[in-house]
């Protein structure tokens, strides 16, 4: 079972090496690693070239933003399963991909999996700032503020072939809309892996601060409308509250 891992880069020289090394360190062999670069102007491509023997395909050209680049990655992917590891994130363990494949093989009916995630300090990645602990999906969960952490979401390629990629009109929440569409609208079968698979540096467009989180929530409400779905009037609070709890949640193993 081949897994396509896609990393999107643009001027990512400060963090990209950690990302690449975490992919190389995975104990699962059948990995197709794809890097889609937006024509970086810093040292990004020099770093990519340093590890080119471990990278299956590299594309470096201008794009229309993060989700346009992700869609390019999907088009180049030939694996049975597709997932993304951002250029400022890295795997929390060396068996992240093998854990995903193990679940998919044990449950052939599954279309995808998702897991838990640490938000870590941008400089000190050993310091956990937020802990995104998720649960199994239940019908209607998205309306009540639930959704997987996208960097831990892996789905079969056939889901993208059948239901499409990322919308470019939701620059902060296209990943949310895609998971909403896949899981809530088209009812793909997923399973939660009770394990932290990814460490994500704080500072991204949707996690930088409370204001960015609120802007993302507004776009998430639009995602429901785009899919012909209603949401509770208190949805912004229902979505915000679990995120605020992530700052106080502690992992006894951390």
Topology at a glance:
Layout: E1 3-9, H1 16-24, E2 31-37, H2 44-50, E3 57-60, H3 66-76, E4 81-84, E5 89-91, H4 96-106, E6 112-120, E7 128-132, E8 154-156, H5 157-163, H6 174-185, E9 190-201, H7 210-226, H8 235-248
Parallel strand pairs: 1-2, 1-4, 2-3, 6-9
Antiparallel strand pairs: 4-8, 5-9, 6-7, 6-8
Characteristics:
254 residues; alpha/beta; 9-stranded mixed sheet; 35% helix
- The name of the CATH architecture is Alpha-Beta Complex
Major sheet size, sense and barrel closure: 9 strands, mixed
CATH class: Alpha Beta
CATH fold naming? Spore Coat Polysaccharide Biosynthesis Protein SpsA, Chain A
Helix content: 25-40%
In the predicted model, the low-confidence regions spanning at least 5 consecutive residues are none
* Average pLDDT level: 91
Number of domains: 1
Helix and strand composition category? alpha/beta
DSSP strand content: 15-25%
Can you tell me the CATH superfamily?
Spore Coat Polysaccharide Biosynthesis Protein SpsA, Chain A
From the spread of the alpha carbons, the general shape counts as globular
* SSE pattern, N- to C-terminal: EHEHEHEEHEEEHHEHH
Short description:
With 254 residues, this protein is of the alpha/beta class.
Task: Explain what this protein looks like in three dimensions.
It is a single chain. The protein has 254 residues and is α/β, with parallel strands linked by helices. The chain has a single domain, classed as Spore Coat Polysaccharide Biosynthesis Protein SpsA, Chain A (Alpha-Beta Complex), CATH 3.90.550.10. The model has no long low-confidence stretch (mean pLDDT 91). The longest helix has 17 residues. Strands 1, 2, 3, 4, 5, 6, 7, 8 and 9 form a 9-stranded mixed beta sheet that branches. The chain contains 8 helices and 9 strands.
């Amino acid at each position: 079972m081949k897994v396509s891992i896609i990393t999107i880069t643009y001027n990512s020289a400060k963090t990209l090496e950690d990302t690449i090394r975490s992919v190389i360190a995975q104990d699962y062999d059948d990995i197709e690693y794809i890097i889609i670069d937006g024509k970086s102007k810093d040292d990004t491509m020099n770093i990519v070239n340093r590890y080119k023997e471990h990278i299956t395909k590299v594309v470096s050209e201008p794009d229309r933003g993060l989700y346009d680049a992700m869609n390019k990655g999907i088009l180049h992917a030939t694996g049975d399963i597709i997932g993304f590891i951002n250029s400022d994130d890295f795997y929390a363990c060396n068996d992240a991909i093998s854990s995903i494949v193990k679940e998919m093989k044990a449950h052939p009916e599954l279309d995808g999996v998702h897991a838990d995630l640490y938000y870590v300090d941008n400089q000190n990645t050993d310091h956990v700032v937020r802990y995104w602990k998720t649960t199994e999906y239940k019908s209607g969960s998205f309306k009540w503020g639930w959704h997987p952490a996208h960097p831990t979401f892996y789905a079969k390629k056939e889901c993208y072939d059948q239901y499409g990629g990322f919308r470019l009109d939701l620059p902060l929440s296209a990943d949310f809309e895609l998971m909403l569409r896949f899981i809530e609208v088209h009812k793909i079968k997923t399973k939660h892996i009770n394990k932290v698979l990814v460490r994500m540096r704080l500072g991204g467009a949707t996690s930088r601060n409370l204001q960015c989180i609120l802007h993302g929530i507004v776009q998430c409400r639009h995602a429901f409308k785009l899919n012909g779905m209603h949401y509770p009037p208190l949805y912004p609070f229902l979505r915000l509250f679990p995120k605020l709890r992530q700052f106080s949640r502690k992992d006894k193993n951390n």
